[in-house]
Amino acid sequence: MRSKKYTGYVYISPWIIGFLVFTIAPLIFAFYVGLTEWDTFNKPKYVGFDNYLDLIKDEDFRKALWVTIKFAIISVPLGIATSMLIAILVNTKVRGVYFFRTALYMPAIVSGVSISLLWKWILDTDFGLINLLLSKVGIAPLGWLTDGALVMPSYLMMVIWGAGGGMLTYLAGLQDIPGHLYEAADIDGANAYQKFKHITLTMLTPVIFYNLIMGIVGAMRKFGDAYIIGGAENEGRFYMIYLYENAFKFFKMGYATAMAWILFVIIMLLTLLAFKSSSAWVYYETEVSTKKKRKGR
Amino acid sequence: MKKYATARLGLLLALVLAFTVVLAACGGNSNNGNAPADNNVTADNAGNAGQPAEKVKLKVATWAGAEELREFEELVAKVNASATDYEIEVQSIPADYYQKLQTMIAGKQSPDFMWLSQEYIAQYASLGAIAPLNEHVSTISNYKADDYFQGALDVGTYKNDLYALPWISQPYVLYYNQDMFEKAGVELPTNDWTWDDFIAAGKKLTKDGEWGALLNNIPTAMYTWSYGGDVFDKEGNITLDSPESIKGLEMYQTIVKSGIAPARAQADSMGNGDMFKTGKVAMFIGGAGDDFEKTTNFKIGMAVPPKGTNQVTFSWIGVTAMSSTTKNPSVAAKALVDMTGAIHQWKVVAPTKSGFDLIKTSRPEKEYAVETIRLASEFARGFNNQPKQGEIDGAIWEKLTQAIEKGDDVNAAVKSTIEKFNAIIK
C-alpha cells in the first residue's frame, strides 16, 4: 500500500518540482526583494519594511492605486452586464445569429497591441473616429486621451467594446439552462421579467461569479493597452504601469516588488470577499442535484 | 460538508492562481536570468583564458532594427575585417531595448558594449554597470578627444570620468518654411534671433489654421540654458530656481501664451514634423538630421535656434558605453574607439569636427546648411544628467512643463518641481 502511495508522488513530481522551483522559490525570493533596495545591477540591500512605508507616502503610488481601483469598480460590473446582455441577445433564434456571434467575439481574438493602436487612433483628438462622428453632429473635438477627465471614460469605452470576448462563457451558461425550467415557469404563469430574474440570472450566477473573479484580477493588473495608450494627467497610469516604471525605468526593483505584494494582498482580499459572499448569491445546480441524489440513496 | 470542502479547495486554487499571475513576472525574470548567465560566463572565460591568441569576442547591443541594423552590421563587419585582436558581434534588440538590457545586466550577461541614449549614462555609471574609459582610451592613438564637440563629450562624462563615446549629436536647429515667410512678407530668421524676434515673426505668420511655430520638441531645460540657468549644474546641485532659470521658464510661458504655436496635444496628435511638412507651421525646431529637405515641396531654410542671453541649443546625443564586466577592457576600449570612429562616417550628424564635412557627401540635400549645423554643434549640449534622470524627467514633465503650459505661476511650478526632485534624490 505504502509503496503505491509513493509511486503516485513520483508521477506528479514533475509538476511538484516545477511548482516549487518556478512558483514557490520565486515567491520567497520576491518577498525578500520587497524588503530590499535593489537596482538590479548590484546586490540587494536589506531595508526592512522601508519600501512599504515609502509607498504609503508616495503620491504617485496613491494616484496609480486610485486610478486602478476606480477602473475596477466601474469596469467589472460594466463588463459583466454588457457581456451578459450580448450573450442573451445572441442566444435568441434570429436570422444571422452566427454572424453576430462571430462578429461580437472578434475583439477577443485580435492581439492586444493592435487593439491598443486601433483605439489610440479612434480616440485621437484630431484624426480620431469618435471626434469625426461627433463633428458630424456639431460637437467640438474632445481630448479623449489628452484631457484627464476623459481618460477613464475612454478606457471604459474600450471595456464595452471588448465585452463580446466575455460573451462566450455566458452563452455557454445560457445554453446549459434546461428548457423545462422555462416551460414550468410558463405553466405557473411567470412573466418575462420573472423568468429572467428567477431562472436566467439565477442559473447564470456561477458564470457571473467566475467572470467577477477574473474581472477583478484582470482590472487590477491592467497593463498592456494602458502601456501603449497612456493618458493625460496620469489618469492612464494604472498600478501595473507604475510598478513597471519603478522596476525598469527607475531601477527600483525592491520598491516595485513591494508594490506587487501589496497588489497581491489587495487582489487576495477582493477575491476572498467575493468567495465569502458567493454562498449568498451563487447557485450551483450540480450541488443541489448531488444532494438530491444522496438523499435518494 | 462537501460544499465547504469544495469551496475551500476553490478558494485555495484561486489564491494560488492570483499569487502566480501577480508575481510570476517579477520573480520569474530574476530567476530565469540568473541561471543560464553563470554558465555562459564560465564558458566564455574558459575560452579566453585557454587560447590567448584567439581574437577577443565582443558583443554590442543596439536598438537598431531593419535597414539601420543591416547598415550597422555591414559597418561592424568592416571594422572586424581590419581588426587583429578582436571580433565584434551585433546583438539587435529593436523592441523594449532598455528593459532587456537591464535584465541582461542583472543576469550577469551584459553585452560588452551598449548603445545608450544620453539620459541613461549617469544612471548606468552610478550603478556600476558601465566602465570608465579614461585610462583605456588615453593610450589609443586614434582616439582624439579634441575632435569631439565639447557638448557631446560632456554627456558621456559622469563625475569627471568619461563613460561613453558619442556617435551622433544632432543639434536642434530652426527649420523654416521660406514660402510662408515670403507670402506673409516677414523677414527670414537669422542666426542672431532672440526669442522676442521669434515671437514677433511667429505672430505675423499665425492665422486661421496656420501657426508661426512648433515648440513641442524643445526640452524645457533648453529655455533655462538660454538665459544661463539650468535644471542641475555640473556638480548635480539643483539650479532650477536660479533667477536665470526662472527667466528662461518665463520666456517659455510667454511663447506659449503668445499663441504662435498649436497646443501640445493637437501638435502631438497631428505629428509634430508632419505639421511642418504639410505647411501648417512656418517654423520648426528639431534635429539637424531630420529629412525635411527631401519630404517637403516648399523652399526650406535653416538657422540656429533663437537665444535669450546665451546662444545654446539642445542636442540629441547617442553614445556607446562599455560594460564594467567586459573581460579584456583594454582590447574592448580599442574596439570601441574603432567602431565609434566608423559610426562617425555613417551617422549624421557626427559629434566630431572631422566627421562634419561628410554631411556634404552623405546628405547632399543638407549642403546649404552645413555652416549653420556646424555653428549649432559648437554650442549644442545635452542635459546634466543625474543618476535618477528617469524619475527626474518624469517630475519635469509632470510638475514643470505641464504647469507652465497651463499658465500656472512659474515660481510655484518650480517650487513644486524642486520638492519632487528632493523626494527623488533623497
The pLDDT mean of chain A sits at 89
CATH class of the largest domain in chain B: Alpha Beta
Radius of gyration of chain B: 25 Å
At the fourth level of CATH, the homologous superfamily of chain A is MetI-like
CATH architecture of chain A: Orthogonal Bundle
If interface size is counted as residues with C-beta under 8 Å from the partner's C-beta, which chains form the largest one?
A: A-B, 46 and 43 residues
Q: What is the CATH top level name of chain A?
A: Mainly Alpha
CATH topology of the largest domain in chain B: D-Maltodextrin-Binding Protein, domain 2
The helical percent of chain A reads over 70%
Which percent range describes the beta-strand content of chain A?
A: under 5%
Q: Biggest sheet of chain B: strands, sense, closure?
A: 9 strands, mixed
Strand content of chain B: 15-25%
Which term fits the overall shape of chain B? globular
Annotated CATH architecture of the largest domain in chain B: 3-Layer(aba) Sandwich
Low-confidence stretches of chain B: 14-51
